[in-house]
Amino acid sequence: MESGDGWVVRVRPRGSRLTAAQAAAVADAAEAQGNGVIELTGRANLQLRGVTPDSHAPLIAALRAHDLIDADIDAERRRNILVTPFADAATDALAAALEAALAASGLMLPAKFGFAVDAGPLPVLTRDPADIRIERGPQGLTLRADGMATTSPLHDVTDALVLAQWFLDQGGAPGGRGRMAALIAQGARPPGADLPAPATAPAAQPGATGQGMLAALEFGQVPPDTLRRLSRLGPLRLTPWRMLLVQGAHSMPDLPGVILDGADPRLRLRACPGAPACPQAHAATRPLARDLAGLVPPGAVLHVSGCAKGCGWPRPADLTLTATPAGFDLIRHGRAADPAVLRGLHPDQLPRVL
Ligand code: SF4
After folding, report:
1. Cα dist. 223→17, 89, 228, 353 in Å?
2. Alpha-carbon distance 344 to 286, whole Å?
3. Cβ–ligand 1 contact at 335 (below 6 Å)
4. How far is the CA of 280 from the centre of ligand 1 (A)?
């Protein structure tokens, strides 16, 4: 994709996992062929920014050499699978089986249509985007269409493909677009979904977990050298929560960009790279966001955007500051390009305004 700071290249590691060699390859590629920015996405993928027409081919070659790109672009597009970071070996095997079945299926699903393999003791991905969810209930593995409060037993991963085909047959993707929850909201009901859905686990917090250390990343970005150093502590699992799980780690040193305290106000911040990294930016974003972090109440989100494109947080935020040539615009409960309630603010005014 093109963006204000060059091309964005999205990398979809298999099973939401990265080996140490893969992590090092991504870090090296981000520095050599991008602008050094590695983002964690809301679908547990990675994005490298600042790629140019000249650096794209060597980047793809480097990623391919580490099995981070599929040979077949359609197969890669279809394997849109979130996997719980707390997966055991059986869950990993289930995700791999689903990936293989999807690759062989030929299903033509909408680009954003995705699956969640969330088969730990309690589901942890229910707040994250997925259209078909494999979870675990008292009776064993279950299959749930997003938007449904009930599930059906899962006998085999092909059941998930049958549900995806049902979505298409019901007209869920007119013009190649559509999501399961929208179809369910229209009253469609998949057959056999008569078990209650399992309860959801509380939102994961940074720090120690039973499976390793959850490292939250400031601004959802991992500096290349931090990625290398994290990967030396244990295998990495990607999450859709702007965090990486370092499997088996019980502690970790202070690393640039890593947050281990769930009360850290920096977790309330969103910001694109801003100036000087992005030529489209009208101002620096991150230093300002850090300065304002203490004014953001717990549970709220402050988004500071270098321009109206809003690359750093495409969703609405409680407060958004969008840089313009005339100063900062303040948007409440909106995106970077939404109508502002105050315009042309000088950075010195912002603490009082917030
Ligand atoms: S939102 Fe930020 S990164 Fe995106 S184009 Fe604007 S200044 Fe650049």
Report:
1. 18, 29, 9, 32
2. 19
3. no
4. 6
Atom 5 of ligand 1 has which residue's CA nearest to it?
Answer: 4
Residue 148 near residue 193, CB atoms below 8 Å? yes
pLDDT digits (tens, 9 = 90+) for 254-266: 999 999 999 999 9
Question: Where does residue 143 rank: exposed (0-12), middle (13-18), buried (19+ CB within 10 A)?
Answer: buried
For every residue of 157-206, DSSP letters joined together read: THHHHHHHHHHHHTT--GGG---HHHHHHTT---TT--EEPPPPPPPP-S
Give the bridge partners for 334, in sequence order. Answer: 317
Coil/strand/helix, residue 49: strand
Count of alpha carbons within 13 angstroms of residue 277, beta-carbon side:
22
pLDDT for position 121: 87
pLDDT tens for 147-202 read: 999 999 999 999 999 999 999 999 999 999 999 999 999 999 999 999 999 899 99
Ligand 1 site, residue 281, Cβ cutoff 6 A: yes
Alpha-carbon radius of gyration of the chain? 21
> What pLDDT band is residue 130 in, cutting at 50, 70 and 90?
very high
Ordered domains of the chain (ranges, CATH): 2-72+204-259 (3.90.480.10), 86-196 (no CATH), 265-353 (3.30.413.10)
